[in-house]
Amino acid sequence: MTGPVNTSPRTSLLAAYGPILAVALVLALLPLATTANTVLNAMVLALLIALAGQGWNILGGYGGQFSFGHAVFFGTGAYAVALLQSRLGLNAYLAFGAAVAIGAAVGAAIGFLSFRSGLRGSYFALVTLAFAEVFRIVANASPWTGGASGALIKLDMRPENFQFASRATFFWIALALVTAALVATRMMERSRFGAYLVAIRENEDAAKALGVNTFRVKLQAITASAAVTAAAGAFYAQYFLFVDANIAFGTWISVEALLVPIVGGLGTVFGPLIGALALHGLAEATKALAGRLPGADLALYGALLVLAIAFAPNGVQGLFNRLKGGFSTRRAA
Q1: Residue among 82, 70, 238 at smallest CA distance from 145
Q2: CA-to-CA distance for 47 and 276, rounded, in angstroms?
Q3: How far is residue 242's CA from residue 151's CA, in Å, rounded to a whole number?
Q4: Banded pLDDT at 167 (limits 50, 70, 90)
Q5: Of 314, 58, 60, which is closest to residue 189 (Cα–Cα)?
Q6: Which one-letter DSSP state was computed for residue 294?
Q7: How confident is the model at residue 123 (pLDDT cuts 50, 70, 90)?
Q8: Do 188 and 62 touch, CB atoms closer than 8 A?
Q9: How many angstroms separate the CA atoms of 166 and 126, rounded?
Q10: CB–CB of 267/201 below 8 Å?
């Protein structure tokens, strides 16, 4: 006979948010274990992609609205920070907050135009790709954005700007942003809004028949998704102090943002972080082959990626859950 199950709110909150805080604490210790710039730089880039992937995951993983053009939000955040600092003289933190708000506004505008027109599936994906390309062309041609030369953020060592920060400090800032995104995603997952979003992903027509305002839910989802992705773009600009149209609105970030949730686990809280760490760890590991056999690292990286998607369609987290379930079943038997 088993004892009573503890279902107190405190236990529920600990089960929901405890793993997030534990992972954040473990990762936060990394700069204390190593001061190598190559390691810290690789981890900062992995966290940057994880943040962009978490933005994509809110809309694509939970809502089923696949986007091929999340670069439009990433680039908006990057250019907003660069221009607000270089043109208007805002400090880094105010510019960062404004960039996130501008990215959210762009997401709301694109979502309103797309979802009000009834676009879904491949049509929505192509529209987001078109928006990203339009923004890239405009940024590349406009003299106010620096045109093809890009926008440069001047190095400022004042305390109100975080360009004075060390590589380790940038790592902790990136980790704080990712942790905040993880917590926000968990909160969304446990809310009624999250349930509506999953219902739309599973069957939008059925959700609408049950009384869900699908237009409003999808509009809120793309706004939140754009804000998180714009935060990744704003951090990128602060980290590298330079941005141009091909970097900010390039297809590379759209691919990375959708790839890490797919590899890590679509529609899961930790999926984008797991996918980013796995893919960037794999990329760093295969770089050693480049010196001996040019192109071999990319070929091996691509082959392993195809195998991962083929044999783990639910991502790394789904594979782990499946293995854990099988172990629990064998132990019970």
Answers
A1: 82
A2: 7
A3: 6
A4: confident
A5: 58
A6: T
A7: very high
A8: yes
A9: 40
A10: yes
Q: Which of 11-15, 223-227, 231-235, 286-290 has the lowest mean pLDDT?
A: 286-290
What SS3 class is residue 151? strand
Q: Do the beta carbons of residue 59 and residue 222 sit within 8 Å?
A: yes
Prediction pTM value: 0.89
d(CA 10, CA 8): 5
Alpha carbons within 13 angstroms on the beta-carbon side of residue 242 total 5
For a pLDDT cut of 90, what percent of the chain falls above it?
Answer: 58
How many residues are listed for the chain in this entry?
333
Cα gap 228→154, rounded to integer Å: 25
3 state DSSP class of 1? coil
Kindly report the number of other CB atoms within 10 A of residue 77's CB atom: 34
Closest CA to 132 of 255, 227, 236, 219: 255
Which residue has tokens 């943040």?
51
pLDDT tens-digit readout, 278-322: 888 877 777 766 666 666 666 766 776 777 777 766 777 766 666
Q: Report the 10 Å Cβ neighbour count for 73.
A: 39
Per the CB < 8 A criterion, the answer to whether 275 and 315 are in contact is yes
Phi, then psi, of 90 in degrees rounded to 5: -70, 150
What local confidence, expressed as pLDDT, does residue 6 receive? Answer: 46
Q: Give the largest Cα separation in the chain, rounded.
A: 75
Q: Phi, psi (5° rounding) for residue 238? A: -70, -30
Q: Are 173 and 165 in contact (CB under 8 A)?
A: yes
**Phi, psi of 165, rounded to the nearest 5 degrees:** -70, 150
Concatenate the DSSP letters of all residues of 260-277 into one string.
Answer: HHHHH-TT-SSHHHHHHH
Closest CA to 315 of 260, 257, 252: 260
Read off the pLDDT of each residue in 65-79 and give the average, rounded to a whole number.
95
pLDDT for 199 beyond 90: yes
> Taking CA 59 as the corner, what is the angle to CA 56 and CA 64, rounded to the nearest 5 degrees?
115
Q: Residue 145's pLDDT band (boundaries 50, 70, 90)?
A: confident
